[in-house]
Specification:
Blueprint (H helix, E strand, L loop, with lengths): L2 H15 L5 E5 L12 E3 L4 E5 L4 H23 L6 E2 L2 H9 L6 E3 L4 H4 L10 H20 L2 E4 L2 H11 L7 E2 L16 H11 L6 E6 L8 H9 L5 E6 L5 H10 L6 E4 L5 H6 L3 E4 L3 E2 L3 H8 L4 E4 L6 E2 L1 H4 L7 E4 L4 H12 L3 H12 L4 H12 L3
Parallel strand pairs: 1-3, 4-5, 5-6, 6-7, 8-9, 8-11, 9-10, 11-13, 12-14, 13-15
Antiparallel strand pairs: 2-3
Helix pairs in contact: 2-3, 3-5, 8-9, 8-13
């Protein structure tokens, strides 16, 4: 599970503990390998109901119809929703078409900036057409949502540019972190080595972690190239899956890094990988926020990322403003600059890190986010 999935589950847990019955509605598409997820899934905190999303143009458009049907069915089963929170323009539009009068839309990213077709592949007609349709439909989602919420000032600016004249000014809020899952382990060397052995990770190596979907936007290829710039003590661990996996394997073979890069499949226990890592790399070209950054910092792992000066569109610098011990930045979009940021992160002063970590984490709480949304929606 990536940052968005973890945050959805954590927010659901917070709402459940506050007395809500939580119903999560989403598509059945597994974006890692395009397989189908179960239509119904339940755990202690929520019930997940998934509508069908098949491949192809008709599947893409048909998901809106299926989303509306599932929302109407959910209203029929539950009778009334006290609070409707959306994390996608698809479900936001679906909620309006299903007759739900108020929807709180926490914007995950801004398509106009995230998927801008700036490569030869994306300039092909099919990709360009999908980009235009996505931009238009997200605009519609922004217009029909009752309120918009954003996690960063950069996202706030992007929403206002995309929406031009939003019905209401986007509300700035902060996400939370599940501190029970993501926390620094007070392990002895023996315990840490045992945890590495359990994950089948070499005990004597400094672990550099990348976690997320293997897609063009994540730029994990740069992390692979950066390992080639570092000495033999460093090992790169990639956790995830997606369309770029074959390209990563080709790059690993080309650079003769088979003993220095390990690829693991997607996991529901990302905290296990944070716990054995020395540096977390955020190599994305676009991130509206980056929940994994909070998870890494809460787990006691320094971050290496690209600054906006490198050309990326992320909120990383904004997130770590005034917290120089928690993250180090590469100011050029290349492997050498990223490798240098990794070196600085791995040698961070741990005492200074923990002082800044405590102040940093105090800003992020799922309880506070729930209260902020309830207050804005008038349901307290």
């Amino acid at each position: 599970m990536g940052g968005v999935e973890n945050s959805l589950h954590a927010l659901s847990k917070e709402l459940f503990n506050a007395g809500y019955k939580v119903i999560l509605i989403c598509s059945d598409r597994n974006y890692v390998d395009n397989s189908r997820l179960d239509s119904l899934e339940q755990d202690k905190y929520l019930t997940i109901r998934r509508y069908h999303y098949r491949n192809g143009l008709f599947g893409y458009l048909g998901q809106y119809r299926n989303c509306v049907r599932e929302l109407i069915a959910a209203q029929s089963r539950e009778g009334h929703f006290d609070l409707v929170v959306s994390r996608s323009h698809i479900t936001t539009i679906g909620a309006r078409l299903a007759g739900l009068k108020e929807t709180e839309f926490i914007v995950p990213s801004v398509t106009m900036f995230q998927d801008f077709p700036n490569t030869k592949v994306k300039l092909k007609a099919r990709f360009l057409a999908k980009y235009i349709v996505d931009v238009i439909l997200q605009y519609v989602g922004f217009r029909v949502a009752t309120r918009l919420y954003v996690y960063s000032d950069s996202m706030r600016r992007q929403v206002r540019i995309h929406c031009a004249f939003p019905r209401r000014v986007p509300i700035s809020v902060s996400p939370g972190i599940d501190r029970e899952r993501f926390c620094e382990r007070d392990w002895t060397t023996v315990e840490r080595d045992a945890a590495k052995t359990t994950l089948d990770v070499p005990v004597k190596k400094k672990i550099i972690l990348c976690l997320g979907r293997f897609s063009n936007e994540k730029q994990f290829g740069l992390a692979i190239q950066a390992i080639a710039e570092l000495d033999e003590d460093f090992l790169l661990v990639l956790v995830g899956g997606g369309p770029e996996k074959c390209l990563y394997n080709e790059l690993i073979s080309e650079l003769k890094l088979k003993d220095r890069v390990i690829i693991f499949p997607p996991t529901r226990l990302p905290e296990a990988y944070y716990a054995v890592s020395d540096v977390f790399v955020m190599s994305s070209k676009y991130e509206a926020f980056g929940q994994t950054l909070l998870e890494a910092t809460a787990s006691g792992v320094p971050v290496a990322a690209f600054s906006r000066a490198s050309g990326v569109k992320t909120a990383s610098e904004e997130i770590y403003n005034s917290f120089s011990s928690l993250a180090n930045f590469a100011h050029k979009l290349d492997a050498k600059s990223l490798a240098d940021a990794i070196r600085r992160s791995v040698s961070v002063d741990r005492e200074e890190f923990r002082v800044e970590q405590k102040k940093f984490l105090a800003k992020y709480s799922w309880d506070r986010l729930r209260h902020d949304i309830e207050r804005a929606a008038g349901v307290e």
